[in-house]
Design brief:
Ig-like_fold; SoxZ_dom; Thiosulfate oxidation carrier complex protein SoxZ; Ig_E-set; mainly beta
Amino acid sequence: MARALIHMPATAQRGDIIEIRALIGHPMETGYRVGADGKLLARDIIRSFVCRYNGEQVFGAELHQAISANPYIAFFTTATESGTLECIWQGDNGFAHTEKATITVSAA
């Protein structure tokens, strides 16, 4: 099971631009490295990241072998209403992980 962290403000005013930072612990093995036994290590990478704000996608990224281990992603969105941000990582070998965070939005 992966360990993921989401850092974002717990509260904001409607219309504020907020930063969301997401980090997940994952080795991101490219499939090009040779192990101690001289054989190629199997590829094991996160292929996609999506963030949904109250069910609507606000950010998405396709990841490839060049991404480092424990990928860190930061992006901005506009606080429109109170609710939940859901971050979803999917990868090779059936890997899938979801983390949720809530935000309370007040009238400007």
